[in-house]
Amino acid sequence: VTDEALRWVSFSSAVFREATDNVKIN
After folding, report:
1. Cα 7 from Cα 24, distance rounded (Å)
2. What is the pLDDT of residue 19?
3. pTM tops 0.90
4. Under 8 Å CB-to-CB from 14, ≥6 apart: which residues?
5. How far is residue 17's CA from residue 25's CA, in Å, rounded to a whole number?
6. What's residue 26's pLDDT?
7. pLDDT the model gives residue 22
8. What are 1-26's pLDDT values in tens digits?
9. How far is residue 23's CA from residue 26's CA, in Å, rounded to a whole number?
10. For the CA atoms of 12, 16, 19, 24, what is the dihedral angle to 10 degrees?
């Protein structure tokens, strides 16, 4: 796995987590 792929996975996880938090708040 490349560093770029790891960064993408980390970024996607953060975005997904933030999105789910927003859904719970609203």
Report:
1. 26
2. 94
3. no
4. none
5. 12
6. 67
7. 85
8. 799 999 999 999 999 999 999 888 76
9. 5
10. -160
Measured CA to CA, the distance from residue 6 to residue 25 in angstroms comes to 29
Token digits for 17?
């987590």
What's the one-letter identity of residue 6? L
By CB neighbour count within 10 A (0-12 exposed, 13-18 middle, 19+ buried), where does 1 fall?
Answer: exposed
End-to-end CA distance of the chain: 36
Per-residue 3-state assignment (H helix, E strand, C coil) for 1-26: CCHHHHHHHHHHHHHHHHHHHHHHHC
